[in-house]
Structures are given as C-alpha cells and as structure tokens.
Specification:
81% of the residues lie in helices and 1% in strands. It contains 10 helices and 2 strands.
Length: 272
C-alpha cells in the first residue's frame, strides 16, 4: 500500500492542477518600477514645459519640486499597483473556472449521495487550487476505502491529514508577494514622512536666512513637504486596501477548502 501512494498523488496532480499564475521574482518588478519612476520624474515631471523661469506653472512641475524622494515614492506606488494586479490574476486562476460557492455546494451534494466519482469529475471541470486540493483528498478517500489494514479512526485521520498537507502546499502560491505589499503599507508612509521632514528643513532654512526670507526656497521646501506627504499617504492607503482585499479573498478560498474537506471526512465516517 505504501508503495502505491506516490503514484496516486501523481495521478491527482495530473488530473487537476492548481495552475496559479503569478510573478515569482518580485525584485525584478521593483527594479522595473524604479526605472519607470525615474523616467517619469526626469522626462515627464521635469519637462521644461512645466516651468517658467525655474518656477512650476502646473501640477506636474509642483510634483517635480518634491525632490529626490518623489521617484522613490513613485517606485513604491507603482510596485503596489503591479503586485495588486498580479495577485488579482493569480487568485482568479486559483479560483478555477466557475463559482467557488456553487462548486462547494455541488461537491457536497455528490458526497451526500456517496458519489465520489461525480465529485472528482466536478473537480476536473472546476480546476484551480480549491479543486486540486479537493481532488487530492478524494484520491486519498479511495485509498482508505480500499485499505483493509488501518482502523476507521486511522483512516479518518489520514484523510484529514491529506486536506491539511494539500492546503499547506498551496498556501505559499496564494500568499506570494502579499508580504511585500504589507511592507509597503508602512514603508510608503515612512518614506513620505522623510520627504516631509526634508522639505520642512529647507523651508526653515529659508526663513532663518539673514535679511528677507528667500520666497523661492521657502515655496520649494513647502512643495517638497506637501508633495511627499501626499505620495506617502496615497501609497500606504492603497497598499493597505490591496493587502486586506486579497487576504480576505484567500480566507474565502481557505474556508471553502475546509468546508469541503470536512464534508469528505464526514461522508467517510458515515459510510464506513
């Protein structure tokens, strides 16, 4: 029996693949966003048409006056956007081809009728992470059904363990890149605060100058402070919303897995 387990697992993997699409190397995303941010800062925000006699005449020029912190904040903001889109695509592929609640309900109906083959067929049609985990558990169900050595309690524990192990294997692909988004919720705000402090320092230096205050330096410092504050708050807020949104979606997928896994265990307990 032990020698047959790898073969069954391979069959399960071939039959239903989780097929979670996603970016494996987030560092390349950050580098690409940094290049785009620097280009935007130099060629778009810093264009001569945005200035007159060295003073900004529109919003783009004002943002440019935010200083060297601006492209850093733009990099962080673009990274949050790209990784949020990446997680949307990844979790959409993890969900499979149909509605998760409908899939769960159909599988539970098949289990209540003790129709394991129909439940497997539903998994093949659904695809995605939830279906892959459920299918692997159903394969283990068949193994335990044919097993004449283990006790009923041991069989139930083995099926439950299969659910937990399959879920643990899939979770990293679902949560991939979310820790980076979580980090950016704080990092974006802190970098924006740094830019604010630097801008205020410049403003106070202009005020403390001997004679009449340099209005140009004063306005530049204030612009730098306010622009960086705005970018930092925007980056942090968007990252928080994105992180909580996708964490909630993962929780829904996990709940669906737990619900079907419990039904499989209960079905085995009731029919054996």
């Amino acid at each position: 029996m032990e020698a047959q387990k790898p073969n069954n697992t391979q069959k399960a993997n071939k039959a239903v693949s989780s097929n979670v699409r996603g970016i494996k190397n987030a560092f390349l995303v950050i580098c690409a966003c940094a290049v785009v941010a620097v280009c935007l800062f130099i060629f778009v925000l810093g264009a001569d048409s945005n200035f007159e006699n060295g003073h900004p005449i529109n919003l783009l020029g004002t943002i440019y006056k935010g200083g060297f912190i601006v492209p850093i904040l733009q990099t962080l903001f673009l990274t949050v956007i790209v990784l949020s889109v990446e997680r949307w695509i990844a979790l959409s592929s993890a969900k499979g081809s149909g509605s998760i609640p409908k899939f769960v309900a159909n599988v539970k109906t098949a289990l209540n009728a003790n129709d394991i083959e129909k439940a497997k067929e539903l998994c093949r049609k659904q695809k995605g992470t939830v279906a892959a985990i459920v299918y692997a558990t159903l394969v283990k169900y068949d193994e335990m059904d044919k097993n004449t050595i283990l006790s009923k309690e041991q069989k139930l524990a083995t099926i439950q363990k299969e659910v937990e192990e399959a879920t643990a294997l899939e979770m990293p692909s679902l949560q991939q890149n979310l820790p980076i988004v979580a980090t950016l919720t704080t990092l974006g705000t802190l970098v924006g605060l740094l830019g604010t402090v630097i801008g205020m320092i410049k403003s106070f230096q202009a005020l403390s100058a001997s004679g009449a205050p340099d209005s140009t330096e004063l306005s530049t410092g204030i612009s730098e402070a306010l622009v960086n504050t705005a970018f930092g708050i925007a980056t942090g807020a968007f990252a928080v919303i994105s992180y909580n949104f996708y964490t909630n979606k993962i929780d829904h997928l996990t709940y669906a897995i737990d619900e079907v896994g419990f039904s499989i265990v209960q079905t085995f307990a009731a029919t054996h």
